[in-house]
UniProtKB/TrEMBL annotation:
Keywords, ordered alphabetically: Chaperone, Cytoplasm, Nickel
Transmembrane segments annotated in the record for this chain: none
Protein's job: Involved in urease metallocenter assembly. Binds nickel. Probably functions as a nickel donor during metallocenter assembly.
Identification of the protein by name: Urease accessory protein UreE
One cellular-component annotation, GO: cytoplasm
BP term (GO), one: protein folding
Species annotation: Rugamonas aquatica
Broad class of where this protein is predominantly found: cytoplasm
One Gene Ontology molecular-function label: unfolded protein binding
Matches recorded under InterPro entries: UreE, UreE_C_dom, UreE_N, UreE_N_sf
Gene3D superfamilies attached to this UniProt entry: Urease metallochaperone UreE, N-terminal domain, UreE, C-terminal domain
Length: 167
């Protein structure tokens, strides 16, 4: 079985793709299947979050590209920036992971949050999309070679709301 353990900045040849939803891209230890059908083990440093486009390699030097799998999400838009900012505040207040886009927010599907956001005046549309949330404002950082947006790791002690969590 191929074992992937090292992120690299670039590669000339990509051997396969590893398509994963965000929930699995947060794990530092997992077993998965490449798009070629080959089983792989992923062992990354604790706290590592795999992002769409990341490149991984292992002992045999083959390179695998991480691809964000489409998953059930809500795209949140508002009539004005103030309302969108209020929605972002209330999501953050609940430690909800959110992707910040140009004029929209995206969260994983959660009926309770959908109702709250609609109550704040947002338009909440169900959408199957790759989920790439902001990862927090603490510590070092992570930057994509293709988008230039700095992302920082989430502290391990920080509680994150995930759909299906018990209150």
């Amino acid at each position: 079985m191929l074992t992937l353990h090292t992120k690299i900045p670039s590669a000339d040849i990509i051997a396969a793709q590893l398509v994963l939803p965000y929930e699995l891209r947060e794990k530092c230890r997992l077993r998965a299947t490449l798009d070629t059908g080959e089983d792989v083990a992923v062992f990354t440093v604790r706290g590592t979050v795999l992002r769409d486009g990341d490149l991984l390699t292992g002992e045999d030097k083959r390179v695998v590209k991480v691809v964000a799998a489409p998953e059930p999400t809500y795209k949140i838009t508002c009539a004005d920036a103030h309302t969108l900012l209020r929605c972002a505040f209330h999501l953050g207040n609940r430690h909800t992971q959110a992707q910040v886009g140009d004029g929209f927010l995206r969260i994983r599907a959660d009926a309770v949050l959908k109702e709250m956001l609609a109550g704040l005046g947002a338009t909440v549309m169900e959408e199957t999309a790759a989920f790439e949330p902001e990862s927090g404002a603490y510590g070092g950082g992570h930057s994509h070679h293709h988008d230039g947006n700095p992302l920082a790791p989430i502290p391990l002690r920080q509680k994150i709301h995930r759909p299906g969590d018990q209150k």
